[in-house]
Design a protein that fits this description.
By secondary structure, the protein is an alpha/beta fold. It is built from 16 helices and 15 strands. Strand 6 and strand 7 form a beta hairpin. Helix 7 packs parallel to helix 8. The radius of gyration is 24 Å and the shape is globular.
Length: 458
């Protein structure tokens, strides 16, 4: 018996049938003046901040399941992974690395809810200072505020350094030491600006202020040098899907011995005063108790197996080389866009980020036009980039976060400039591409696959 001609031989056959019978059309925002081509190959270059363009090793192990959280040997495995992560961020001796199932936001909330004391609960005394210079550091401030903490939010200009002078004024007035934490970003992903946490540490030490230094390292860890010991960081917040090159699902927070002591003291004060501890899952004291008791989570953990592969990937390449690679890719981006006539959001070249290159749109160029450029990049050049969050008419971001190589950075630069040209921007596209190609030739190095692993993952 002859099979019907429309019989489906695989799940993809249904899609093929819809295409062949004209039941699927191109999206409305597709380039109308060009002939489109249907392609089953959905490979794109992802230069958004995250989830980052990942490690091939992590991709190959993406189906590796996490260990059961109560089986034999699990606590030892979990503890080892956390210790290896602690080494990556140069955690102080005696400190602890805690992992929460979630994202960097989960770890941020855990940090923002820490160190509550009885006198804070029914007073208007400032407990936390946040320093904000972009959308994500503003989100950190929102987190603190939404938890009901008494916070002073020091907001600087987009693309500028932190408002250190205003922070000094606030700390100098706090003669009773009510401020428990100063929170700031290491790398502001929304504005493409990198901050030096050591400046805040030095300020706290100079004033002999007891506040803990809490740093958002979500896009800096695994992308640029980030040492808790050298920078004097007490709490460092991170996530698994950016510079670590893992999959989303883990929010990390590393605590210095000083931070652990402060957490224990505040927890005891609450208990002695008859108050409940407040947060449950995001309670640092409870998580410390669980880790110290048996090395396990208080609830279901994220996928440690994939995270372990991600840490191995960084170790194989070498963190120094990883950071150098981010510099090389960012130099290609900056050379391309500035030569073509664009300006950076970062106001000072010295603190322009090597993880995120934020590009300012021309005057009068709005959100609709900015998204038009991004759609051309994605639909025509298979490069996915991002706008400036919180400032929809500000510009674009090209990122080096994660596994981006100079080859990807060059392709993304070409795609961005070509797309901007096609969208009608008055730039020197050819000059920018030529400059990016020259910079690429200067920084590119030989690559060779790992022994035993070829392009087919064998």
């Amino acid at each position: 018996m002859t099979k019907p001609t429309n019989e489906l031989i695989s799940p993809l056959s249904a899609l093929r049938h819809l295409i062949e019978t004209n039941q699927i059309e191109a999206p409305d925002d597709f380039l109308k003046d060009k002939s489109f081509v249907w392609s089953p190959h959905n490979k794109i270059i992802n230069v958004t901040p995250g989830p980052a363009f990942g490690s091939d090793l992590v991709t190959q192990f993406s189906s590796t399941q996490t260990r059961g959280m109560r089986g034999p040997g699990v606590a030892e495995f979990f503890t080892t992974v956390r210790e290896e992560y602690g080494k990556l961020v140069d955690l102080q001796e005696g400190g602890k690395a805690l992992f929460f199932t979630g994202t960097g936001t989960a770890a941020t909330e855990a940090a923002a809810g820490a160190l509550r004391t009885p006198e804070e609960l029914n007073s208007d005394k400032t407990a936390i200072v946040t320093m904000e210079v972009g959308w994500f550091s503003m989100a950190m401030g929102n987190c603190v505020e939404n938890l009901g903490r008494n916070v002073i939010r020091l907001q600087g200009e987009l693309g500028d350094d932190l408002p250190y002078d205003r922070c000094r004024e606030v700390l100098e007035k706090d003669t009773e030491g009510n401020i428990k934490m100063v929170m700031a970003p290491h790398n502001e992903t929304g504005a493409g600006v990198t901050i030096n946490p050591k400046k805040i540490r030095d300020l706290l030490d100079e004033l002999k202020h007891p506040a803990l230094l809490v740093i958002d390292g979500i896009s800096s860890i695994g992308s640029m040098p980030c040492s808790m010991t050298k920078m004097g960081i007490d709490m460092l917040v991170g996530c698994s899907q950016k510079g670590i090159m893992g999959t989303p699902g883990i929010g990390m927070i590393t605590l210095s011995p000083k931070a652990i002591q402060k957490i224990r003291e505040s927890e005891k004060q609450l208990v002695d005063a008859g108050h409940k501890k407040g947060q449950h899952y995001f309670n640092l004291g409870k998580m410390l108790d669980a880790m110290e008791a048996n090395g396990l989570h208080i609830e279901t953990p994220g996928n440690y197996a994939q995270f372990a592969v991600a840490l191995d990937t960084l170790a194989i390449e070498g963190i120094d080389r990883v950071c150098e690679r981010h510099v090389e890719c960012s130099e290609i981006y900056r050379t391309a866009v500035q030569t073509a006539g664009f300006e950076l959001i970062a106001k000072n070249p010295s603190n322009a980020s090597n993880a995120v290159t934020a590009i300012k749109a021309p005057e009068g160029y709005g959100e609709k036009e900015i998204m038009h450029v991004l759609r051309i990049m994605f639909n025509k050049h298979a490069v996915e980039a991002a706008a400036i969050p919180g400032y929809p008419d500000m510009g674009w971001r090209l990122c080096a976060t994660g596994g981006i190589q100079p080859q990807h950075a060059l392709m993304a630069s070409i795609a961005f400039l070509q797309s901007a040209k096609e969208a009608g921007l008055k730039i020197d596209c050819d000059k920018g591409i030529a400059a990016a190609s020259k910079k690429y030739a200067e920084v590119v190095q030989y690559h060779r696959p790992l022994p035993g692993i070829d392009v087919y993952g064998r």
